[in-house]
Design brief:
four-stranded antiparallel beta sheet; 23% strand; rod-shaped; membrane; alpha+beta; transmembrane helix; 1 helix; transmembrane; DUF6476
Length: 106
Amino acid sequence: MDTNTPEDEPDIPQLRFLRALVTVLAGVMIVGLLVLIVLIVIRFREDRTAPALPALPEAIALPADARPLAVTAGPGWYLIVTEDHRALVFSPDGTRISETALTLPE
């Protein structure tokens, strides 16, 4: 009969250290995974609504020969770039404030 079983032998100090090291590493990995999951959940639960678009006027009267190429808005104004290289600035009620000739690349 074999009396040399692992229960009878005392732990080797390096083996005890290695066992503790693996246990601590497993605990740190579990805590790290839980932290990542919590951060992802918190991030996706934030209110992520898009910023409100500015209220556009009902109508903007462009000159007869103007065709819009691009539109942008700022606080209290709208700018329309036309195909004939003009920048038309309008107020929020749709009245034209200014007109500027642009030099655009072809």
